[in-house]
Design brief:
Distance between the termini: 20 Å
Order of helices and strands: EEEHEHEHEHHHHEHHEHH
Helix content: 40-55%
Strand order of the largest sheet: 1-2-4-3-5-6-7-8
Structural class: alpha/beta
Largest sheet: 8 strands, mixed
Number of helices: 11
Radius of gyration: 18 Å
Number of strands: 8
Strand content: 15-25%
Length: 276
């Protein structure tokens, strides 16, 4: 679905975008279509979005990037905080000359996308949140200790994969700190008001089953928190509940994510016209 964008570029671009004390690897397909910026999972890379992008096709302007110390090229930083991740969205869009965009985030990226859409109602076409941004109090001290133990155990083999870009160039404590911070930000009293304040169209695509580190039906209990969110805010709806688990959703249920992008883009264009 094309949308006029005065800042559209006619050709694709791949390069590094400086921000703070680091630089991010960015790819921008260019073109006059709706700018869509994809926000990765906490330790994932922009390659995870390739199936969604292929499903949507060339009528869109796809912008992907690897967060700090992720992927093969993005540089290390002294700041891996959540606020840095939100700032990076603005830095990438500014560098590419994009004022208004549709954000699509998976997992950690969904929380980043929810915050960005809530803070930037005039700049957000809308948001698609993929199995993340659930306001639920899942973090307690026992969970924090499980997280630290898990990342210290994983750190025994993760350095072997770092040259491939499949694991971040962060140490075990940095990764654990980031995950624990996400738990604090996901608490209902923290994330609930962020979601309640969103005034642009949002569609969730929700997975089934477990995620890394979860046990039993923990993840389904977390997902159930959306019922209260959608009851309070009419802008937010569950677009699809799919069979894939958290880790496989972008690989197996990419058509549902692409369809949610199309729906939000149509609604977002209508909202923009209404504001004129």
């Amino acid at each position: 679905m094309p949308m006029n964008n005065a800042s559209a570029t006619s050709s694709s671009w791949t390069g590094m975008v400086p921000v703070d004390d680091t630089a991010l690897a960015v790819t921008d397909t260019g073109g006059p279509g709706v700018p869509v910026v994809y926000l990765n999972g906490q330790f994932a890379t922009q390659g995870y979005w390739r199936r969604v992008i292929a499903e949507l096709g060339t009528g869109w302007r796809h912008i992907t990037y690897d967060e700090r110390a992720r992927g093969r090229k993005s540089k290390r930083s002294t700041d891996y905080s959540f606020e840095a991740a939100v700032r990076d969205v603005d830095a990438v869009l500014a560098a590419r000359g994009v004022h208004r965009a549709l954000v699509v985030g998976w997992s950690y990226g969904a929380v980043v996308g929810a915050h960005w859409a809530s803070r930037n109602p005039e700049r957000a076409v809308g948001a698609v949140l993929v199995d993340g941004a659930f306001p639920h109090d899942w973090l307690d001290e026992a969970m924090a200790q499980r997280i630290r133990k898990m990342f210290r155990r994983m750190n025994l083999f993760m350095p072997l994969l770092r040259p491939t870009g499949l694991t971040p160039r962060m140490n075990a404590d940095q990764m654990a700190d980031s995950n624990i911070e996400l738990g604090r930000l996901s608490r209902e009293r923290e994330l609930g008001p962020v979601l309640d304040a969103i005034t642009v169209p949002v569609r969730y695509v929700v997975a089934s089953g477990t995620s890394l580190g979860s046990r039993g039906d923990e993840q389904e209990q977390i997902r159930a928190s959306l019922d209260a969110v959608t009851a309070r805010n009419p802008h937010i709806q569950i677009g699809a509940k799919v069979a894939s688990n958290h880790g496989a959703i972008l690989k197996k249920d990419f058509p549902a994510v692409a369809e949610a992008v199309r729906e939000v883009a149509g609604l977002g264009r209508g909202d923009a016209e209404d504001r004129r």
